[in-house]
Design brief:
219 residues; 20% strand; eight-stranded mixed beta sheet; Rossmann fold
Amino acid sequence: MKLRAADGHELDGYCCEPEAAPIGGLVVVQEIFGVNAHIRAVSEGYARDGFRVIAPAMFDRVERGVELGYDAAGMSRGIELIKPLQPEHYLLDVAAALAALDGLAAGVIGYCFGGSVAWRAAAALPVRAAVAYYGSNTVNLLELEPKCPVMAHYGERDVMIPLEKVQAFREKHPEVSVHTYAADHGFNCDHRRQYDAPSAALARERSLAFLRRHVPLNG
């Protein structure tokens, strides 16, 4: 589907509908690898759980149709694509996806780069809940004050997000539900060598329960 941000930018969104009436909306924010097979699968999974889901193509401001693999070339290209983007762009594009949910109460969930975007969205956008998976900037943006319930997942073996920073984040934001796992960065993604099935299953179980509790208007 096509989305339109408040600054006039048009971007693609991968939309998934539940079989029955949606219990709420959910914006899925990509990693630095684009709206690829993994992000589409995540979106489809939450649609099966009852949410209307939109995954905005965050790189459309730089290059359209980006879908990268989890190799060194994909990592390098993703890093280059993210450089021209600014936080205000992230929020405009997530807001465009929220607007396309047709008035549904909505949450946001993000992975890696998207985890940091979800944390920003919790402080700046009208979302009812936010879930951040191993967002490296979550622990660097301690000054943000979320306006909704937040859950954050981190890998204990993630060298990009040292545990001491996770602990500092936990202490600064005791209202955030923080979970750590005996896993590496990217442990949720079964397309990556860092995939850890038990950790991914537990984190998803927690995330789904959290979203079901906070997103629906009668939740």
